[in-house]
């Protein structure tokens, strides 16, 4: 169970998250619920006040953090790039740092449907293209686990649909496990196999998404979410 406290404020409180291999885990909650803090703890970017994290059967510690992170790809917050460089040149920097084969660049650009824009400077990219390039950089090592924090933020409806389709394809085609956070219930409903709902730093529900629908068949998913969190949800 994870707890993260800043001063007298508990951002995450006794949180227990269990993610099944080869599935998409939707991490859902209102803005400020503790989603980003939790994901940063999973990546070793924030140290929990109490509790421990186990990934791939190994306890995450400062000593083995880097070895575990080699099998994790992540997109946290909005990606930033060198605008005067092309997408390929930006990815080349990541590829060199990660020490993965150079032909991975072409493969991930194809996966995110940027293979025809790979030689275009990223300063000319739309927000949706930049988000897809962020996903490409997270995929460069073809990780076992992919962690995405609000990957559809700021995208128009077409961009949201495209990102959703890309994420949905990853477990089936590449065997990846995906954790994707969002405050958009409609997106998680169309994307995830399993779901965790967090509010005020506490896990309110965790399990198969289909079972959430069955909690009260007389209520919509939005009404169930409201009952669990006490807050409205973006649709």
Automatic annotation (TrEMBL):
<dbReference type="GO" id="GO:0005524">
    <property type="term" value="F:ATP binding"/>
</dbReference>
<dbReference type="InterPro" id="IPR027417">
    <property type="entry name" value="P-loop_NTPase"/>
</dbReference>
<keyword id="KW-0547">Nucleotide-binding</keyword>
<dbReference type="InterPro" id="IPR003439">
    <property type="entry name" value="ABC_transporter-like_ATP-bd"/>
</dbReference>
<dbReference type="GO" id="GO:0016887">
    <property type="term" value="F:ATP hydrolysis activity"/>
</dbReference>
<comment type="similarity">
    <text>Belongs to the ABC transporter superfamily.</text>
</comment>
<keyword id="KW-0067">ATP-binding</keyword>
<dbReference type="Pfam" id="PF00005">
    <property type="entry name" value="ABC_tran"/>
</dbReference>
<dbReference type="InterPro" id="IPR017871">
    <property type="entry name" value="ABC_transporter-like_CS"/>
</dbReference>
<keyword id="KW-0813">Transport</keyword>
<feature type="domain" description="ABC transporter">
    <location>
        <begin position="1"/>
        <end position="225"/>
    </location>
</feature>
<dbReference type="InterPro" id="IPR003593">
    <property type="entry name" value="AAA+_ATPase"/>
</dbReference>
<protein>
    <submittedName>
        <fullName>ATP-binding cassette domain-containing protein</fullName>
    </submittedName>
</protein>
């Amino acid at each position: 169970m994870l707890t993260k406290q800043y001063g007298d404020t508990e951002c995450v409180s006794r949180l227990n998250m269990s993610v099944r291999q080869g599935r998409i885990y939707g991490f859902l909650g209102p803005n400020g619920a503790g989603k980003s803090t939790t994901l940063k703890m999973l990546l070793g970017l924030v140290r929990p006040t109490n509790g421990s994290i186990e990934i791939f059967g190994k306890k995450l510690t400062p000593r083995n953090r880097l070895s575990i992170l080699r099998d994790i790809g992540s997109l946290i917050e909005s990606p930033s790039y060198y605008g005067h460089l092309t997408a390929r040149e930006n990815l080349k920097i990541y590829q060199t740092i990660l020490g993965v084969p150079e032909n991975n660049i072409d493969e991930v650009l194809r996966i995110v449907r940027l293979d025809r824009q790979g030689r275009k400077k990223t300063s000319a990219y739309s927000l949706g293209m930049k988000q897809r390039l962020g996903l490409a950089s997270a995929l460069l090592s073809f990780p076992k686990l992919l962690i995405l924090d609000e990957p559809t933020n700021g995208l128009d409806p077409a961009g949201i649909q495209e990102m959703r389709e890309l994420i949905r394809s990853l477990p089936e085609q590449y065997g990846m496990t995906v954790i994707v956070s969002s405050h958009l219930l409609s997106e998680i409903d169309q994307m995830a196999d399993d779901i965790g709902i967090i509010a005020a730093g506490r896990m309110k529900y965790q399990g198969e998404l289909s079972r959430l629908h069955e909690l009260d068949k007389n209520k919509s998913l939005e009404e169930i979410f409201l009952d669990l969190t006490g807050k409205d949800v973006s649709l």
